[in-house]
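CHAIN AND CONFORMATION:

***
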Amino acid sequence: MRNNMDRYIEELCSYLVSIDSEDDCRNFLDDLCTRKEIEQMALRAHAAGLLMAGSTYTEAIEATGLSSTTLSRISRCISYGAGGYTKTIGKADDET
């Protein structure tokens, strides 16, 4: 199974990019993940948006309740990661 993980991740990504609406996305996430997993992903994405908008660590922690370790990881990903937060959250902000 571990040998196929990259293929499984690519498959998941193809499912995600095929989603046409927020309702379909929510339904897919509801079926795929536990409520707690969805909440944690939502908090991380929200914290990334806060940091990208100039919030301090303290403000982001107060707003989300995430640990400083998790927030630090998010910050590193924003600065040095693959660009997923920046491209995706920036794109969503531009559309709203």
